[in-house]
Design goal:
With 560 residues, the chain is an alpha+beta fold. It is 27% helix and 21% strand. It is built from 16 helices and 23 strands. The chain has helices spanning 7-23, 61-70, 118-128, 147-152, 180-183, 191-194, 253-262, 276-280, 310-318, 322-330, 359-368, 398-413, 425-433, 467-470, 488-498, 503-520, and strands at 41-46, 75-77, 83-85, 88-93, 99-104, 161-165, 168-172, 217-223, 227-232, 245-250, 267-268, 285-291, 294-300, 334-336, 372-373, 380-382, 385-386, 388-394, 417-423, 452-458, 523-536, 539-540, 557-558. A hairpin with a 5-residue loop joins strand 4 and strand 5.
Length: 560
């Protein structure tokens, strides 16, 4: 049966048409793009604009969705979390687990025509250990012999990374590392374009906005706030995509959904759950759901004078009726969690400390912590200062806004004043969580930078990825431990987790980490979700995996 458009769909479509007419352009301001550009062109819509296109600089999902089309890693995970080669043709691991010999493909080229060789691999991984590097991925090489010395400036190279010949590289580890094959899931950079700039200066390079990779698509153009354009790489060594041109467009959720209905956008990276029925009733497009390995949480700045008190953190947790809030906002497309590890990953455990909804207990904890409620304002105080927090969130759509408002209401109901501060991801990440000093250089987080925020964390392959967010040595500017969390036992368990190849032993380490973190509660886990994508009927063989929507774009094709 042919689907008929709902009233809301028609209104959204009319809104988008008016917007396009008033701008004097179609879609993202380019001519002949998207569905109107022919069967070999596709337009993908995303709410968050890409921050940069260098995959070694604080990678995040909105960036990776584009980066994965431009660059190639050495290895890549399968749906079963095993590994297959990309720029690595194959590899051998010594019996003691300390030596990895990686054989590279011999027919890959950089987009500027230069050949890809072992020099690029050595350069990329050595750069991650460079003393100036602060891109958040140095854990990928921390177990390699000589990486510590190179980072400390006492060695001229990383002794454990060696070029054997133009297409063979060896990695020697200080000890067996169960996560190292996952750490080889790293996008390789062109030595010939970056070697003359210190990694600590990469964030200032034009390369971040006009990259050269080995991937299936070449970079063409980036119009800030509008779109990124890519074109198919005719010299790609791997499976060639059938779609010639990709436009990656940025906009708000409502506008992008309207554009999908109009046929101006072919895929929308994230659709609100409330829009599924409307979209499925629309002729020419539908919603597609898929499981991710994501977990959304509230991060609490451990330097904040009030948040230093565990009783305050516990009170914040007991005040949230997570089950009801999540059902209200996301319905069946998300589920509450008390664990920091995603429920779909093997690192997950239910054996954690939970904080069931109990507002009376929350207020009792605040009183035990020395706060008294002001009868006239209804908010708790200590030493004449109101208990008040600023809650940072990324502007990403109605569901995220609704969720933050429910959190705000729950905390204010028990007597904690909360102000929501909305911003785009780049502002939150690079102004508050990863701040710079007056000279533009990354610095340590302070109590004044932020109080609390909501973000998601996704496991790409291995839970060792959590290390840079929770191990004490990775506080900014040395990593992404934004909240300045420190627990020696957690630090130790992260080390133990990679020193064994026994899966059961690794699981035990992460389960212990989850339990300790749930006791300390520097993060308040909220929910794990099912991702929802809006897809035009013109997109055939649409396939995604847990990492994001474009990782299997070579399988897609556009109907005539």
């Amino acid at each position: 049966m042919k689907k008929s458009k709902s009233l809301l769909a028609i209104l959204l479509a009319l809104s988008m048409m008016l917007t396009a007419c008033s701008a004097g352009t179609s879609g993202n301001g380019t001519e002949g793009q998207g569905s109107t550009g022919g069967s070999s062109s596709i337009t993908i819509g995303q709410v968050s604009e890409v921050a940069n296109l260098n995959p070694t600089l604080f990678p995040r999902t909105p960036d990776s969705n584009v980066q994965c089309m431009i660059f190639d890693p050495l290895v890549s995970p399968t749906e079963s979390l095993e590994f297959e080669g990309r720029l690595a043709k194959n590899w051998e691991i010594s019996d003691d687990g300390k030596l990895y010999t990686v054989h590279l493909v011999e027919n890959a080229k950089w987009h500027d025509g230069e050949p890809f060789t072992a020099d690029d691999v050595v350069f990329t991984f050595t750069s991650l250990a460079d003393p100036s590097y602060i891109g958040g991925m140095d854990t990928r090489v921390s177990s390699v012999v000589g990486a510590e010395e190179y980072k400390a400036g006492t060695a001229d190279s990383v002794a454990g990374i060696q070029k054997v010949d133009d297409y063979t590289v060896t990695f020697e580890l200080t000890e067996a590392n169960a996560a190292f094959i996952a750490q080889l899931y790293t996008y390789i950079l062109p030595e010939h374009l970056l070697k003359d700039t210190a990694p600590g200066e990469w964030d200032k390079m034009d390369f971040n906005r006009a990259p050269v990779g080995t991937g299936k698509y070449k970079f063409v153009k980036w119009e800030s706030g509008q779109y990124i354009q890519l074109e198919k790489n005719p010299d790609y060594f791997g499976n060639q995509p059938s779609i010639d041109t990709v436009y990656y467009k940025f906009g708000d959720a409502t506008t992008l959904t309207a554009a999908l209905i109009n046929g101006e956008v072919d895929v929308v990276e994230s659709i609100e759950s409330s829009e599924i029925d409307m979209l499925d009733s629309t002729d020419g497009a539908s919603a597609v759901t898929y499981e991710t390995m994501n977990m959304y949480y509230i991060g609490l700045n451990q330097l904040n004078e009030n948040l230093k008190d565990i009783k305050v953190r516990q009170a914040l947790s007991y005040a949230l009726d997570k089950e009801k809030m999540i059902k209200t906002v996301y319905g069946e497309y998300a589920s509450a969690t008390d664990d920091i590890f995603p429920t779909t990953h093997w690192s997950h455990t239910d054996d954690v400390t939970s904080y069931p909804y109990d507002p009376a207990k929350a207020e009792s904890l605040l009183q035990e912590a020395g706060y008294t409620k002001n009868a006239s304002t209804g908010f708790y105080e200590k030493d004449g200062k109101m208990l008040m927090f600023t809650y940072d969130m990324v502007t990403k759509g109605q569901a995220a806004a609704d969720m933050s408002q429910l959190v705000q209401q729950a905390w204010q109901a028990i007597g904690i004043k909360v102000e929501i501060r909305e911003q785009d991801f780049s502002t939150l990440a690079f102004t508050r969580l990863l701040p710079n000093d007056a000279d533009g250089n990354p610095r340590a987080v302070t109590a004044d930078d932020f109080d609390m925020y909501t973000l998601g964390f996704g496991v790409e392959v291995d839970p060792d990825e959590y290390r840079t967010y929770l191990q004490s040595q990775y506080c900014p500017p040395n990593g992404m431990n934004f909240i300045t969390y420190s627990n020696p036992e957690v630090d130790k368990l992260f080390e133990e987790s990679i020193q064994t190849t026994e899966q059961s032993a690794r699981e035990e380490c992460y389960h212990k980490i989850a339990k300790i973190v749930s006791d300390d509660i520097p993060w308040i886990p909220l929910y794990c979700n099912i991702s929802i994508v809006g897809v035009s009927d013109k997109v055939q063989n649409f396939a995604v995996d847990f990492r994001g929507i474009t990782y299997q774009i070579e399988k897609w094709n556009m109907a005539e």
